[in-house]
Write a structure and sequence with these properties.
Blueprint lengths: L3 E6 L6 H17 L6 E7 L5 E2 L5 E2 L3 E2 L8 E4 L8 H4 L1 H10 L5 E4 L3 H7 L7 E2 L6 H7 L4 E2 L5 E4 L2 E4 L4 H14 L1 H11 L14 H4 L6 H12 L7 H8 L3 H12 L3 H19 L4 H7 L5 H12 L3 H8 L7
Helix pairs in contact: 1-6, 1-7, 6-7, 10-11
Keywords: Transcription, Transcription regulation
GO molecular function, one term: sequence-specific DNA binding
InterPro entries: Class_I_gatase-like, DJ-1/PfpI, Homeodomain-like_sf, HTH_AraC, INH-QAR
Length: about 325
């Protein structure tokens, strides 16, 4: 099994979990695969100086950037400065511009994508970043195809993830790619996280992705939808629950949540179906009924449209069996 060097770049203001989350995944993979040398983890900073994270922790790097080996995987974490991180870490950007093309795999976590972008390494590629900075990312870098929805994006040798904990999801995906699903599953269980949220999963769950309505009747409808995905969730039915006319309800719901009632229902049902496929052994037909799809074919179309895969394939890849202790 070839050794893969993972080099994590550190700088002042870096987000500590962007560093430690992926590092714990890669370190755990060596143990899970029965080969401690599966990944050789290294950290480097400008001049090899200690760095102070955004939360006040001090990290001591292994080496300076100028002395760092050419890695298999080059990982750039984000920082508290967000989009300003590139401007506040010019030494890192200059180093990335020269050395980034030499790595076999370029990875960013959260706003680390701004550093890769400033170095010109994301030009012509699809990428993502923390949801709060996606609009700014797209404005500053029109040469990048910015996708604000997924928790991580793979585009050839480049992988970018959304905020903070999404770096763990991306690292698990890379471990699965390098060492197989079983190894990644062992790591996920050890860290008590999902194996693994698919990259095209939205950065927010359906209720979080939409705004919470201001008016109580509409908030009650949002709760009702989340708690009863198998019920009649047509506009007429929901409008009657809110005691509004269908036209008034549809306009008010969209104005206060940012999505149409139909789109909101679609997101809730898809999220509920994913969770059942990941966490239970219910059959596809049973899941489709429980989530209001009615038929397996209707659910299959919703999965292909929303996730790019069929329910059976989704379960094969992402079902996490319950374990007993």
């Amino acid at each position: 099994m070839p050794e893969r060097t993972v080099l994590v770049v550190l700088y002042d203001g870096v987000q500590s979990l962007d560093v430690t989350g992926p590092v714990e995944v890669f370190a755990g993979a060596g143990w899970a695969a029965g080969d401690p040398s599966a990944y050789r983890l290294r950290t480097a900073s400008p001049g090899g100086r200690p760095v102070r994270t955004s939360s006040g922790l001090t990290l001591l790097p292994d080496t300076g950037l100028d002395s760092a080996p050419v890695p298999h995987t080059l990982l750039i974490p984000g920082g508290a400065d967000g989009a300003d991180g590139a401007g506040n870490a010019p030494e890192v950007v200059d180093w990335l511009r020269e050395h980034g093309p030499k790595a076999e795999r370029l990875v960013s976590v959260c706003t680390g994508s701004f550093l890769l972008a400033a170095a010109g390494l994301l030009d012509g590629h699809r990428a993502t970043t923390h949801w709060a900075f996606c609009d700014e990312f797209a404005r500053e870098h029109p040469e990048i195809d910015v996708d604000p929805e997924p928790i991580f994006v793979r585009d050839g040798r480049i992988a970018t993830s959304a905020g903070v904990t999404c770096g763990i999801d991306l690292a698990l995906a890379l471990v699965e790619e390098d060492h197989g699903r079983e190894t990644a599953l062992v790591v996920a269980r050890h860290l008590v996280v999902f194996l693994r949220r698919p990259g095209n999963q939205a950065q927010f769950s359906a209720p979080l992705a939409a705004q919470t309505a201001h008016r109580e009747p509409l908030r009650d409808v949002q709760r009702w939808i989340a708690e009863n995905p198998d019920r009649d969730l047509s506009v007429d039915s929901l409008a009657a629950r809110a005691r509004l006319s269908p036209r008034h309800f549809a306009r008010a719901f969209h104005a206060e949540t940012g999505v149409t009632p139909g789109r909101y229902v679609e997101r809730v049902r898809l999220e509920h179906a994913r969770r059942l496929l990941e966490e239970t052994t219910h059959g596809v037909a049973e899941v489709s009924r429980a989530c209001g799809y009615g038929t397996p074919e209707a659910m299959r179309r919703a999965f292909v449209r929303g996730l790019g895969t069929a329910p059976v394939e989704y379960r094969r890849r992402f079902h996490v069996p319950r374990t007993t202790h």
